[in-house]
Amino acid sequence: MNKLHIIKIGGALIDDKKSLKAFLEQFSQIEGAKILIHGGGKVAETLAEKLKITQTMIDGRRITNKKTLKLVTMVYAGRINKNIVAKLQSFNCNAMGFSGADGNLIQAEKRQHPTINFGFVGDINEKSINQELITNMINLGLVPVFSAITHDKKGNLLNTNADTIAGTIAQTLSKNFETELLFCFDKNGVLENIEDENSNLKTINKQEFSELKSEGKLHKGILPKLENAFRAKENGVQKVSLINEKKLSDQIKQGNEGTEICL
Ligand SMILES: Nc1ncnc2c1ncn2[C@@H]1O[C@H](COP(=O)(O)OP(=O)(O)O)[C@@H](O)[C@H]1O
Ligand SMILES: CC(=O)N[C@@H](CCC(=O)OP(=O)(O)O)C(=O)O
């Protein structure tokens, strides 16, 4: 099987022009098949504040009413996605940027919950991913760049957590490619002590995850990220790690950065 790198970025990196450019230069140097998935929650948050659109997050998901859907579509599938593609093109990486509606690449289902109305939030599974079209693009030497916007094939756009998109695409493509999934973020991996940058675990298994969680050592974004990482590993993704976004090139060369997910 050919090797495939699937890389997820989000948060502060996307909000920082200089760091984003440096990251994209590293990404463009990865040889062979690769896919980039980006979030942009922090940028959406800042704009929503300016526009006085109140935001609520529950279980790592943004409650997405009509106004917020308009905003996140403009921010994720518009400004951020197109800016990333343009930067990658400047590094001679032949990127193409998509929402899940394009080419029916990611078909989601509106989230149903007994008590919480999440609004236009889309849930996905392996069947949601247009494996054939993504594989064809990769085989043409193209580099797909996905935003966190999906659709329901009934004419509605939906907002889907970007870590979930990365994990699910990786699961699907791991049947055809030897897939390495890297969640890149601002810490050196999973930290045992959030105050200590050097307390990152080299590996983490499900039991250690549960222990850290019950000890209150994992909070905010790291929880859904780890849940998505374990789901991907359990469903066949050959290698899954959480790494510092500055260490992407080192990880590609040596493969021992950050925290690797173990079963
Ligand atoms: N034990 C931990 N180890 C690492 N990060 C943690 C831990 N506990 C909480 N976090 C927080 O989780 C954040 C990563 O999640 P998130 O902000 O959602 O990332 P992104 O937006 O890049 O997807 C880190 O920046 C950190 O503040
Ligand atoms: C439904 C839902 O929560 N969608 C996410 C999509 C963006 C995202 O995941 O961004 P980061 O990776 O930067 O956190 C949101 O709107 O925040």
UniProtKB/TrEMBL annotation:
Location of the protein in the cell: Cytoplasm
Signal sequence, start to end: none
Gene3D superfamilies xrefs: Acetylglutamate kinase-like
Keywords: Amino-acid biosynthesis, Arginine biosynthesis, ATP-binding, Cytoplasm, Kinase, Nucleotide-binding, Transferase
Any one GO biological process: L-arginine biosynthetic process via ornithine
Reactions it catalyzes: N-acetyl-L-glutamate + ATP = N-acetyl-L-glutamyl 5-phosphate + ADP
Family label: Belongs to the acetylglutamate kinase family. ArgB subfamily.
Pathway the protein takes part in: Amino-acid biosynthesis; L-arginine biosynthesis; N(2)-acetyl-L-ornithine from L-glutamate: step 2/4
EC number of this enzyme: 2.7.2.8
Site (Transition state stabilizer): K8, K225
Chief location of this protein within or outside the cell: cytoplasm
Source domain of life: Bacteria
Binding, substrate: G40, G41, R62, N159
GO cellular component, as recorded: cytoplasm
One Pfam family from the record: AA_kinase
Keyword Transferase belongs to the record: yes
Any GO molecular function: ATP binding
Aspartate/glutamate/uridylate kinase domain span: 5-244
Protein name per Swiss-Prot or TrEMBL: Acetylglutamate kinase
Reported function: Catalyzes the ATP-dependent phosphorylation of N-acetyl-L-glutamate.
